[in-house]
Write a structure and sequence with these properties.
Layout: H1 4-22, H2 35-54, H3 59-69, H4 75-99, H5 105-126, H6 131-154
Helix pairs in contact: 1-3, 1-6, 2-3, 2-4, 3-4
Length: 156
Amino acid sequence: MRVIPWLMLGATLLFAFGKKLYGNRPSGLAHDASTNALFWACVFEFFVAVYGGYFGGGVGIINLAMLAALGMTDIHAMNALKVVLGGVINGVAVVTFIAAHAIVWREGTVMTIGAIAGGYSAAHYSQKLPQAWIRAFVILVGSAMTIYFFYKAYHL
């Protein structure tokens, strides 16, 4: 629990300043990525997936931070890729939890329906907003989650 706030802080800062760190080079995903870049992105995503499958808190901003670090700048494209990555992470976790008989189906079904409805509507409406607003909202939510996790980890 004491690692999570630091992870969230790093991810939020990386997302907020990723464009400055990457410089004026073309987007890392707008051209053919090198084998080395793809390898390290996969290694990073593996650790994000393990964390996301176990805990899940803030995994979206961590993935957005990784994409920003790779040089992506289109928040709509980043969100789309984040949703795919999150779906794979959660899908593998759900299959694992089903195999371990660790799901309370009544509550789990309600959460699944809510997550699908919320995810779909958020994706639909965020496409209609300016990218600067979406980026600011992601930074705001990441900052709030960072503060919350610092409070939970060090003040309970």
